[in-house]
Sequence to fold (373 residues):
Amino acid sequence: MRRPKRSRMAEAFGPSFWVFAGFAGIAAWAVWELKGIGAVGEALSGDLDILLFLLPRMMGGMLLAGLVQAILPPDLVAKWVGEDSGLRGIFIGAAVGMLTPGGPMTSFPIVVAFYMSGADRGALVAYLTGWSLLGFQRILVWELPLLGGEFTLYRIAAVVALPILAGLIARRVPLGSVGPGRGEDDPPAAPRRAGGEA
Amino acid sequence: MGAIFGPGVMIIWAMVVVAFVVAVRQPGARHRLGAMRGADMFLVNGPRICVAILAAGFISPILPQDMVAEWLGEGAGWQGIVIGCVVGPFFPGGPLIIMPLMLALLKAGAGVPALIALLTASSTWGLHRIFMFEIPMMGARFTGLRLVSSIAIPPLAGLLAALLVEVLGAPAPGR
Fold:
């Protein structure tokens, strides 16, 4: 299942890398034109801060995702959050999302891990929606102390059912394969479900 | 930007340790496979995320965020909900930035339904997160699917919040 080094390099520096690099170049030029070279320097040093902040979190998040993927038995994932898991799979996805700590550097690697282990799109969308709307860490650390209990309760009441709704809609959207663009040599998780690979 | 090694990073690495111990105890050297996969994911996605962060850093100074915040402070009723849904995606998604801003808007008298719509739109449609993490890691098709599935969520959240305010009265800030 492991790909040769060269193809991983090609993947890392594939089209999306260059699209983002192009965006960065154009936006940097716009900042220079509109606000001068000083603003470019400020943005760069802000970027460096963000990178330093994200790096230990991203490394931890991806390591966690790799380990989760290695631990999770694919047949169990298929049973609980696979295509035939029904409403229960969507509820589980949303609940696991709410319990996932940290920012996008933990949740997105975990989505990739679940996708690779055979979770279906409804559960994945419910997971991301549950995490972003109702993530417990964000509520406890930021919302409650800053905005107060009443506002937080109103907001939770207004959004609590919506991850389930998003998951249900995701199952009905007519789209073929929706996985990460990983190339022809790495098919979606379905064939792996049978027995794992170890 | 907060401390580089704050409580958030501790929680993540504590979970890494737990997952590693669980993997070690499973038969078949799962911990090695897991660590390799994690490193693989990091190698493949790292460069993309770095340039995406670079791009995001250059885009935020040219967005008129302050102006929009003032505008929303004046919005009320369903107009506030619409404005919240429209401007939400452009706000950087991190709670570090958006939560203090919410507090400022709440104190300045912005409507609670509008704020809830804004917060919901920034969480579900936040462009920063979509471009920095979702497209690089899950691809454009999945991102499109998720956006289509959650297109109604911010306005629905705003409307439900308006209903709550109508029935129960506005929440007291800071309580």
Q: What stands out?
A: Chain A touches chain B through 95 residues (CB under 8 Å). The CA atoms of residues 34 and 142 of chain A lie 34 Å apart. Confidence is low (pLDDT under 50) at residues 182-198 of chain A. Chain A has ten helices and no strands.
